[in-house]
Each structure stands twice: as C-alpha cells, then as structure tokens.
C-alpha cells in the first residue's frame, strides 16, 4: 500500500476515524509505516502525509494512538499532541551499543586467532627487544601469541590507527609514542633528547618484550637500533652494516652520521643507575 487516496465523497465530509479504517485493518502494514517514519501517504495528491491527516482532528489522533497501542503494545511515534517522537536511529540504545562492542571484540579475537605473520622488516634485536615496520591486522596474532608483547614503541608523530589501538586494548599491550622526524637534508634531524627518551623506554625491563617500529622499520628505527648497538660496544663497521641491510635500498648517510655522533653519556648514566646494562642476549 504505497499511498492513501481520499475519494471525492470523503472530501466533502469532516475528517473522521473512517478515513483510516483501511489502514488500521492491516496492523503489520501500519506498523511498518510508523517505523519508517517519513514514508508519505498521499492524501488526494496534495502531498500530505498520514501525520498531517491525523493532526487535523484531535479525537482522531487519540483514537489512532489507542489502535496502534493494541498492535504494538506501546505508544506510537505520534503523540496525542501531534508531535512526532524522536527517530529511532537518533536515540542512544545502550543494549545495541553493548552488542556492537561485543561484535567488534569477537572480530578482533578472530583476527588474533588467524595465521601467524610477522610484520615486514621484522627482526630480533637483543634480549626481549624487537624491531619491524608498521604492524597491520594480519600481524596481530604474531605480536600477541608469539612475542607476547608487553609494549610497543612507535617512532612516528602521526596518530596511531584505531584498529591497532583496539588490538592493544584487547590484549593489554602498552603503547609508547616518541614521535620524531627522520634525518633528511638540509635541516631536519632527529633530536638527541628524543632518542635518549626512546632508549629509556626500550631498555627498561618493565616494558619488555617490546617492539620498536616507525613506518618502514628502516631509518628512524635503524637509528635507534644503531644506538643500542653502541651500548653493546659494537664497532661502527658492524653497526653500519646492520643499518644498511634493513634500510636497503635507501640507506642515509645522515642516519649513519647521527649514530656515530650520538652522545650516549646520559642514557648510560640512567641505565647504570637502574642496572639495565649490560644488555643480555
């Protein structure tokens, strides 16, 4: 029933409950129309909807609501005063919210149970310290089930993706963010104090097992790992060789210069005070 057509005889008569007799005979149809709240029931082609028809007669409005209450067991969207109630889609439904949250949680659990796939550029660094590129959803199971991470340190300044935040919340993994720009010509360099702050997070056993990542796991991550190697007393030749392997094919001379020139006195002092050194394999 797409529209309500009033006959010529009805036009000359006062509005009454007889005008909706056909509508209320089919309760399923009227309930559907009420729920849709916006479907037009055209009155003689003038564009008036069913609410306008009913509002013209207060008695009819009351009767209409009483009829619908018998079918729905509740008030209709049209109150006796002729005011349309709030649209169902605009109302906060706590039950619906909880159900959708549960669905999202179940989806994340399914993701975690999928095949174990490490992130790109993944590698073990030392002890319970790991490195990689930016983890994606297909890597979540590996990070949680295999590495059993306690923390993730991200070295980019951009906002962390929501799906990754949901994963961290579900698994209880802590997120540390030390946003830094890469070493690029002519004037952009990683601040030494930020690198020291990042190292302080990584070396703290309370945050391990920990994964370090930037975007590709090459340059900013490579600089941080290079500085860890200095704390392990690696030679610069070995440090640069490792850096270039992970940064290939875009190794940066400025990154290697940064690693060589980084003043590690402050992080060594902090590490020794907390007995974080020497690092154990």
Name its key features.
alpha/beta, 5-stranded mixed sheet, Prot-tyrosine_phosphatase-like, diphosphoinositol-polyphosphate diphosphatase, 13 helices, disordered N terminus, 47% helix, elongated, 281 residues
How would you describe this structure to a colleague?
The chain has 281 residues and is α/β, with parallel strands linked by helices. The chain is built from 13 helices and 5 strands. Strands 1-2-5-3-4 form a 5-stranded mixed β-sheet, with helices on both faces. Helix 10 (220-231) runs parallel beside helix 12 (253-261). The longest helix has 19 residues, at 94-112. The model is unreliable at 1-17, 38-48 and 74-92 (pLDDT under 50).
- How many strands appear in the DSSP assignment? 5
Unreliably modeled segments: 1-17, 38-48, 74-92
- Note the overall shape: elongated
- How far is the N terminus from the C terminus? 76 Å
Write down the secondary-structure element order: HHHHHHEEHEHEHEHHHH
